[in-house]
Amino acid sequence: MKRKVPVFSQFFAVFMAMFLLLGISAPQTNAAEKPNEKNISLNGLIPETALNSQIVVKDGLTQPIYTTDDAIVEELYVETTVDADKDGKLDRIHLMLYRPKTDPGVKVPVIYHISPYNKNLATYQNHGFIHDLVPVGGNGQPPSYFQGFADQMGAYAAKNLGTLANYFVPRGYAVIIADSLGTAGSDGCPVSGGKEEISAAKSVVDWLNGRAKAFTKAGAEVSATSWSTGNVGMEGTSYEGTLANAVATTGVAGLKTIVPISAISSWYDYYRANGAVVAPGGYQGEDADIHAKAILTRVNPGICKNVIDDLENRQDRVTGDYNDFWHERNFLKDVADVKSSVLIVSGLKDWNVRPKHFAQWWEGLSENNVPRKLWLYQGTHGVNATNRNAFQLLEHRWFDYWLYGIENGIMDEPIVDVQREDNSWSKEASWPNVNTLSTVMHFNAAKETGGGSLTLQQPVNSAGVTESWIDDTKTFLNYVDDMVKYYNNRYDRYYLASNYGPTFVKNLLANPDTANPNRLAYLTSELSNPVRISGTPEISIRASIDRPVSNLTALLVDYGGSSPVIVTRGWTDPQNLESARISVPIVPNKSYTFKWAMEPEDYVIQKGHRLGIVLIATDFESSIIPSSGTKITVDPSKSQVSLPIVGGTTALNLTSTADMKTLVNQLQDQGDIKTNQAAQALNLHLTGVNQFEISGLADKVVKQLQGFKVLLDQQKKSGLISNRAYDLLNKDVDQLLKKWQK
């Protein structure tokens, strides 16, 4: 989660302090002017605003009336309640405080940003991820490590957060930039979302409300109550936003709101998925212990060795199971204790902190009636340049509402904003979309030409038909080894495997209508109108595996553009049949029903495109990469995907009279239609319907379909068709009627 931080100057705090010490003016935002407190509409949430604030509001927004020339800058150390480094002393959190110079008696709210990235990452090594998987009862692989990606690609620079203070201090806010536990200037040890980290971060909120102590570097105690209203808003991206989520679950008094951006809601779901060890996008081999090593940038880092070793031992990289270590780091269990409002911001293409994090956090907040808003943008990890100005305005309005109590209408708007693929925005009442329906689509075995299909109808003539694929990791690893030689060992095997993994996954998506021994593909026909996915797809396959352990991966793919697009994906460890907490032995070549959720998504598949499910074993981008050759055999007739489609089956609009005629023939072959005459009568009627479909004569199509239902009733009464045939054909007729009665 240490992620692609822009290369700016490393220490904005030092920069500001030097300017003030030398008597040089800091960059000026706006000259101070006499504040005008008249005609400010307040929402009643923050009584302090009417009593002791000094702000100007225009168009519902606080205006820049304070100059940064006079900004007060302090370097402080807040005493926490934890001793994470076990040195016998309470750890302290280092912070830089920026606040406007106000008149005596004026108090300001605080925007609090705590980060592990205020100093370059430490040197670290990732876990090896090319090794065999471990069956239940087996022994784990001997530990192996390789140089972390940050060191091979150049060290990350500390994030310059001066823009936060430059924007908000002139508008009447204090801004705190703090170092999380064990990083930069703070004491303690990083524990990847553990309770010590949360308690330490909470201490800053306590100090702002007079419940904790802070000191200067020289040791003098400093109070905040003379200038702080005690009203705090936390914000930040990735780990920073994760800490905001975590502190909110403590219910600490004074924390009025949080703005988590691309933030974790459960650390298990960051490094695991349904029992499988799954790396965050682009960070193969990383785990909770490795990340802690990377951000361990405090003075005397060696004091944290035992703490880091404990993380490695307890995270259980062998089984991937959910355990007490991960439960401690699951903020969902404490969501009922959240007392602050929450503005969730997340990218719909973020494969670092994957969509499950915002989706389950949003669901938990909704169930507990927490005041909230969701802002989903088209982008990856962290707000992109395209949306930065829009986000800044949103965050400004949000903080004004919740920290100053300004009635600006933000909570009267629909609570969900979703950016579509063309960068337009829509406002919605909830997420997933209120009209989302779980829509089951069935796998149909591939024809001789090689392509399987995905249909609303359950296959009627494929009982006993199975399909198989081989997990071909050998070809991938051979290619990686060739590239190691090509680069004269400048890059090691792990680094190149991580970089070439996405390409090999894309190769498996190509030519879905042609058989491929290393994957199975099931596609819909071309869509006659756009179809929106909004929510969490779920996979269920009946399959056997010829080894006691394997990877299993499902990809939801949009076919029809210039190249296939992975809409979402999901992974599972087959040994976690019933629960992520428990692995059970898998008997080779025995059939099981494997079910798992894919990552949530909000995506529109365009008219003329096809929607596909691609089954593979090893996801070269994220999975442990084992030896080659595992064979997985699927029974398509007992396999399906449940898709969260806005409008459900009606929106898919896949049923046609041609499909129904095919179904009639299949039912006759299976003995569900008893005579040739009965089948011919049904097909003849459908041919008539089709002629009116082609002409677009909706009224006549509807009339003919109603006549078809009468024919079905007659044939059932006469014993010419089975109950099964009657139900299947009636279901299709109802779909067509919905289509043509619009």
From TrEMBL:
Transmembrane segments: none annotated. Residues 1-31 form the signal peptide. Gene3D superfamilies: alpha/beta hydrolase, Galactose-binding domain-like. GO terms for molecular function: aminopeptidase activity; dipeptidyl-peptidase activity; serine-type peptidase activity. It catalyses: Hydrolyzes Xaa-Pro-|- bonds to release unblocked, N-terminal dipeptides from substrates including Ala-Pro-|-p-nitroanilide and (sequentially) Tyr-Pro-|-Phe-Pro-|-Gly-Pro-|-Ile. Keywords: Aminopeptidase, Hydrolase, Protease, Serine protease, Signal. GO terms for biological process: proteolysis. Residues 396-642 form the Xaa-Pro dipeptidyl-peptidase C-terminal domain. It holds the Pfam family FIMAH. Its EC number is 3.4.14.11. SMART domains: PepX_C. It is an enzyme of class 3 (hydrolase). Belongs to the peptidase S15 family. This is Xaa-Pro dipeptidyl-peptidase.
